[in-house]
Amino acid sequence: MRARPWPRRTAAALLAAVLLLLAGCASSVDPIERLGRKAAQRVRPAGQAAPTPRPYRRWGLAAPLPAPPRPPARPSPRAAASATPAVIDHVDTPDRVVFLTYDDGAERDPRFVDMVRELRLPVSMFLTDSVVGPGYGHFARLLSVGAALENHTLEHPALRGLPYAGQRAEICGQRDKLHARFGVRSRLFRPPYGSYDTTTLRAAADCGVSTVVLWRASMTETRLRFTHGRRSLRPGDILLVTSDDDDLDGPTLRERTTALLRDVEAEGLTVGRLQDYLR
Fold first, then answer.
1. What share of the chain is helix, strand, coil (3-state, %, to 5)?
2. What average pLDDT does the chain have?
3. What is the pTM of this model?
4. What range does the domain containing 228 cover?
5. 267 lies in a domain?
6. Which residues of 238-267 are buried (b: 16+ CB within 10 A; e: fewer)?
7. What angle do CA 49, 54, 59 make, to 5 degrees?
8. What is residue 246's predicted lDDT score, i.e. its pLDDT?
9. Three-state DSSP class for 137?
10. What CATH number does residue 255 fall under?
Protein backbone atom coordinates (compact mmCIF):
# COMPACT_ATOMS: atom_id res chain seq x y z
CA MET A 1 0.00 0.00 0.00
CA ARG A 2 1.52 3.32 -0.98
CA ALA A 3 2.05 5.93 1.82
CA ARG A 4 0.24 9.22 1.51
CA PRO A 5 2.57 12.22 1.34
CA TRP A 6 2.41 14.71 4.20
CA PRO A 7 0.59 17.87 3.57
CA ARG A 8 2.88 20.76 2.61
CA ARG A 9 1.93 22.74 5.73
CA THR A 10 2.86 19.85 8.06
CA ALA A 11 6.18 19.24 6.33
CA ALA A 12 7.08 22.90 6.59
CA ALA A 13 6.25 22.91 10.28
CA LEU A 14 8.41 19.86 10.92
CA LEU A 15 11.34 21.40 9.02
CA ALA A 16 11.08 24.60 11.06
CA ALA A 17 11.04 22.60 14.29
CA VAL A 18 14.18 20.68 13.30
CA LEU A 19 16.03 23.90 12.37
CA LEU A 20 15.03 25.53 15.66
CA LEU A 21 16.27 22.51 17.61
CA LEU A 22 19.62 22.57 15.85
CA ALA A 23 20.02 26.28 16.47
CA GLY A 24 19.28 25.76 20.15
CA CYS A 25 21.89 23.02 20.44
CA ALA A 26 24.47 25.19 18.74
CA SER A 27 23.81 28.15 21.05
CA SER A 28 23.70 26.22 24.29
CA VAL A 29 27.16 26.25 25.94
CA ASP A 30 28.24 24.49 29.06
CA PRO A 31 28.40 27.00 31.99
CA ILE A 32 32.09 26.19 32.65
CA GLU A 33 32.92 26.85 29.03
CA ARG A 34 30.99 30.12 29.16
CA LEU A 35 33.04 31.23 32.20
CA GLY A 36 36.20 30.31 30.37
CA ARG A 37 35.19 32.45 27.43
CA LYS A 38 34.46 35.42 29.69
CA ALA A 39 37.81 34.99 31.41
CA ALA A 40 39.50 34.88 28.04
CA GLN A 41 37.84 38.14 27.12
CA ARG A 42 39.34 39.73 30.22
CA VAL A 43 42.91 38.72 29.34
CA ARG A 44 45.01 41.86 28.88
CA PRO A 45 45.51 42.91 25.24
CA ALA A 46 48.75 42.06 23.52
CA GLY A 47 51.51 44.51 24.43
CA GLN A 48 49.86 45.68 27.66
CA ALA A 49 52.19 45.38 30.68
CA ALA A 50 51.28 43.10 33.54
CA PRO A 51 50.18 44.90 36.72
CA THR A 52 53.13 45.71 38.96
CA PRO A 53 53.17 44.26 42.49
CA ARG A 54 52.75 46.60 45.41
CA PRO A 55 56.03 48.30 46.34
CA TYR A 56 56.51 46.57 49.67
CA ARG A 57 56.11 43.16 48.02
CA ARG A 58 58.59 44.11 45.30
CA TRP A 59 61.20 44.64 47.98
CA GLY A 60 60.51 41.48 49.97
CA LEU A 61 58.28 42.84 52.74
CA ALA A 62 55.03 41.20 53.85
CA ALA A 63 53.29 44.51 54.63
CA PRO A 64 53.86 48.23 54.09
CA LEU A 65 55.86 50.11 56.68
CA PRO A 66 53.69 52.22 59.00
CA ALA A 67 53.99 55.95 58.46
CA PRO A 68 56.23 57.53 61.10
CA PRO A 69 54.58 59.89 63.58
CA ARG A 70 55.01 63.63 63.37
CA PRO A 71 58.47 64.38 64.84
CA PRO A 72 58.96 66.75 67.78
CA ALA A 73 58.76 70.43 66.91
CA ARG A 74 61.40 71.59 69.39
CA PRO A 75 65.20 71.06 69.23
CA SER A 76 66.79 68.41 71.37
CA PRO A 77 67.75 69.97 74.75
CA ARG A 78 70.91 67.84 74.73
CA ALA A 79 72.03 69.24 71.38
CA ALA A 80 71.19 72.82 72.36
CA ALA A 81 72.91 72.74 75.75
CA SER A 82 76.46 73.28 74.46
CA ALA A 83 78.40 74.30 71.36
CA THR A 84 80.25 70.97 71.62
CA PRO A 85 78.48 68.42 69.38
CA ALA A 86 76.43 65.78 71.12
CA VAL A 87 77.61 62.20 70.55
CA ILE A 88 74.70 59.81 70.16
CA ASP A 89 73.88 56.28 69.06
CA HIS A 90 70.26 56.49 70.19
CA VAL A 91 67.59 59.20 70.22
CA ASP A 92 65.49 59.64 73.35
CA THR A 93 61.96 59.55 71.95
CA PRO A 94 58.67 57.86 72.82
CA ASP A 95 57.97 57.47 69.10
CA ARG A 96 58.25 53.89 67.85
CA VAL A 97 60.84 54.73 65.23
CA VAL A 98 64.38 53.69 64.40
CA PHE A 99 66.80 55.40 62.02
CA LEU A 100 68.58 53.89 59.00
CA THR A 101 72.09 55.11 58.23
CA TYR A 102 74.63 54.01 55.60
CA ASP A 103 78.39 54.63 55.50
CA ASP A 104 81.08 55.37 52.92
CA GLY A 105 79.08 55.10 49.69
CA ALA A 106 80.94 52.05 48.35
CA GLU A 107 77.95 50.22 46.90
CA ARG A 108 76.08 52.20 44.24
CA ASP A 109 73.19 50.03 43.12
CA PRO A 110 70.65 51.95 40.97
CA ARG A 111 67.89 49.68 42.27
CA PHE A 112 68.61 50.88 45.80
CA VAL A 113 67.46 54.32 44.60
CA ASP A 114 64.20 52.70 43.43
CA MET A 115 63.83 51.00 46.79
CA VAL A 116 64.25 54.25 48.72
CA ARG A 117 61.77 56.01 46.43
CA GLU A 118 59.07 53.33 46.39
CA LEU A 119 59.20 52.56 50.12
CA ARG A 120 59.73 56.25 50.97
CA LEU A 121 62.61 55.33 53.23
CA PRO A 122 64.09 58.32 55.11
CA VAL A 123 67.69 57.11 54.96
CA SER A 124 70.87 59.00 55.89
CA MET A 125 74.00 58.45 53.79
CA PHE A 126 77.32 59.34 55.49
CA LEU A 127 79.68 59.85 52.55
CA THR A 128 83.46 59.66 52.23
CA ASP A 129 84.82 61.56 49.24
CA SER A 130 87.64 59.12 48.43
CA VAL A 131 85.21 56.15 48.49
CA VAL A 132 82.41 57.78 46.53
CA GLY A 133 84.86 58.84 43.82
CA PRO A 134 83.04 59.31 40.51
CA GLY A 135 79.76 58.06 41.95
CA TYR A 136 78.38 61.37 43.15
CA GLY A 137 75.68 61.24 40.45
CA HIS A 138 74.22 58.18 42.18
CA PHE A 139 73.90 60.13 45.44
CA ALA A 140 72.35 63.08 43.64
CA ARG A 141 69.60 60.66 42.61
CA LEU A 142 69.26 59.45 46.19
CA LEU A 143 69.02 63.05 47.36
CA SER A 144 66.24 63.66 44.81
CA VAL A 145 64.15 60.81 46.26
CA GLY A 146 64.47 62.00 49.87
CA ALA A 147 67.74 60.63 51.22
CA ALA A 148 69.88 62.86 53.45
CA LEU A 149 73.59 63.24 52.64
CA GLU A 150 75.92 63.70 55.61
CA ASN A 151 79.63 63.96 56.45
CA HIS A 152 81.99 60.96 56.84
CA THR A 153 85.38 62.72 56.12
CA LEU A 154 87.39 63.09 52.94
CA GLU A 155 89.74 60.09 53.21
CA HIS A 156 88.21 57.84 55.91
CA PRO A 157 91.08 57.91 58.47
CA ALA A 158 90.72 56.83 62.09
CA LEU A 159 90.60 60.31 63.64
CA ARG A 160 91.42 59.46 67.24
CA GLY A 161 94.89 60.73 68.11
CA LEU A 162 95.36 62.82 64.97
CA PRO A 163 96.30 66.52 65.40
CA TYR A 164 93.61 69.15 65.31
CA ALA A 165 94.62 70.54 61.89
CA GLY A 166 94.37 67.12 60.24
CA GLN A 167 91.00 66.34 61.81
CA ARG A 168 89.60 69.72 60.91
CA ALA A 169 90.77 69.35 57.31
CA GLU A 170 89.03 65.98 57.02
CA ILE A 171 85.73 67.17 58.48
CA CYS A 172 85.53 70.65 57.00
CA GLY A 173 86.85 69.40 53.68
CA GLN A 174 84.02 66.92 53.22
CA ARG A 175 81.49 69.46 54.48
CA ASP A 176 82.62 71.79 51.69
CA LYS A 177 82.53 69.00 49.09
CA LEU A 178 78.93 68.13 49.97
CA HIS A 179 77.91 71.76 49.74
CA ALA A 180 79.70 72.33 46.43
CA ARG A 181 78.28 69.19 44.79
CA PHE A 182 74.76 69.09 46.23
CA GLY A 183 74.09 72.42 47.90
CA VAL A 184 73.51 70.66 51.23
CA ARG A 185 74.78 72.01 54.54
CA SER A 186 75.59 68.90 56.51
CA ARG A 187 75.34 69.27 60.29
CA LEU A 188 75.67 65.57 61.18
CA PHE A 189 79.02 63.82 61.22
CA ARG A 190 80.06 60.19 61.64
CA PRO A 191 83.75 59.54 62.40
CA PRO A 192 85.19 56.59 60.46
CA TYR A 193 85.11 53.35 62.50
CA GLY A 194 83.31 55.30 65.24
CA SER A 195 86.75 56.47 66.41
CA TYR A 196 86.99 59.98 67.92
CA ASP A 197 88.45 61.98 70.79
CA THR A 198 88.03 65.43 72.32
CA THR A 199 90.02 66.92 69.46
CA THR A 200 87.51 65.42 67.03
CA LEU A 201 84.65 67.10 68.87
CA ARG A 202 86.45 70.46 68.84
CA ALA A 203 87.24 70.20 65.13
CA ALA A 204 83.68 69.06 64.36
CA ALA A 205 82.24 72.03 66.25
CA ASP A 206 84.48 74.38 64.26
CA CYS A 207 83.15 72.78 61.05
CA GLY A 208 79.53 73.46 62.01
CA VAL A 209 78.68 69.94 63.20
CA SER A 210 75.80 69.80 65.67
CA THR A 211 75.76 66.04 66.32
CA VAL A 212 78.28 63.21 66.04
CA VAL A 213 76.23 60.17 65.02
CA LEU A 214 77.33 56.68 66.02
CA TRP A 215 75.10 53.56 66.00
CA ARG A 216 73.65 51.14 68.54
CA ALA A 217 73.36 48.24 66.10
CA SER A 218 74.74 47.34 62.69
CA MET A 219 73.35 44.98 60.08
CA THR A 220 75.87 42.28 59.24
CA GLU A 221 75.43 39.73 56.47
CA THR A 222 73.10 37.61 58.59
CA ARG A 223 71.90 39.51 61.64
CA LEU A 224 71.93 42.64 63.76
CA ARG A 225 75.00 43.17 65.93
CA PHE A 226 74.45 45.41 68.96
CA THR A 227 77.22 47.57 70.40
CA HIS A 228 75.80 47.63 73.93
CA GLY A 229 72.64 47.24 75.96
CA ARG A 230 69.68 44.98 75.28
CA ARG A 231 70.14 42.75 72.23
CA SER A 232 66.92 43.79 70.57
CA LEU A 233 65.63 46.87 68.80
CA ARG A 234 64.07 49.64 70.80
CA PRO A 235 62.53 53.00 69.84
CA GLY A 236 65.12 55.62 68.95
CA ASP A 237 67.89 53.24 67.90
CA ILE A 238 70.30 54.45 65.23
CA LEU A 239 71.12 51.56 62.89
CA LEU A 240 74.04 51.14 60.52
CA VAL A 241 73.74 49.20 57.27
CA THR A 242 77.19 48.50 55.88
CA SER A 243 77.98 47.91 52.22
CA ASP A 244 80.90 46.26 50.50
CA ASP A 245 81.33 46.19 46.73
CA ASP A 246 84.30 43.82 47.13
CA ASP A 247 82.17 41.07 48.70
CA LEU A 248 80.46 39.75 45.59
CA ASP A 249 79.13 36.64 47.34
CA GLY A 250 77.55 38.46 50.25
CA PRO A 251 74.07 39.99 50.42
CA THR A 252 73.58 43.25 48.56
CA LEU A 253 72.73 46.54 50.20
CA ARG A 254 69.11 46.02 49.16
CA GLU A 255 69.05 42.54 50.69
CA ARG A 256 70.57 43.76 53.96
CA THR A 257 68.08 46.61 54.07
CA THR A 258 65.17 44.21 53.50
CA ALA A 259 66.39 41.91 56.28
CA LEU A 260 66.70 44.88 58.62
CA LEU A 261 63.24 46.18 57.74
CA ARG A 262 61.76 42.77 58.55
CA ASP A 263 63.37 42.99 62.01
CA VAL A 264 62.01 46.51 62.41
CA GLU A 265 58.48 45.37 61.50
CA ALA A 266 58.70 42.36 63.80
CA GLU A 267 59.27 44.74 66.75
CA GLY A 268 56.29 46.92 65.79
CA LEU A 269 58.56 49.80 64.79
CA THR A 270 58.95 51.93 61.68
CA VAL A 271 61.64 54.14 60.13
CA GLY A 272 61.89 57.83 60.98
CA ARG A 273 63.97 60.66 59.54
CA LEU A 274 66.96 61.18 61.81
CA GLN A 275 67.37 64.86 60.96
CA ASP A 276 63.84 65.60 62.23
CA TYR A 277 64.86 64.48 65.71
CA LEU A 278 68.21 66.28 65.85
CA ARG A 279 67.39 69.90 65.10
1. 40, 15, 45
2. 83
3. 0.78
4. 85-277
5. yes
6. bbbbbbeeeeeeebbbbebbbbbbebbbee
7. 105
8. 55
9. helix
10. 3.20.20.370
Query: How many domains is the chain built from?
Result: 1
Q: pLDDT tens across 59-116, in order?
A: 888 888 888 888 766 554 444 445 899 999 999 999 999 999 999 888 888 999 999 9
The answer to whether residue 30 sits within a structural domain is: no
The phi, psi pair for 105, rounded to 5°, reads 95, 30
Residue 22 burial by CB count (10 A; 0-12/13-18/19+): exposed, middle or buried? exposed
Asked whether residue 105 is assigned to any structural domain, the reply reads yes
Residues 6+ apart with CB under 8 A from 100: 121, 122, 123, 124, 239, 241, 257, 260, 271
Identity of the amino acid at 254:
R
Helix (H) or strand (E) holding 104: strand 97-104
- Alpha-carbon span 270 to 102, nearest angstrom: 17
On the question of pLDDT at 271 being above 70, the answer is: yes
Q: Which residues contact 111 (CB under 8 A, 6 or more apart)?
A: 254
For residue 176, what are the contacts with CB-CB under 8 A and spacing of at least 6?
Answer: none
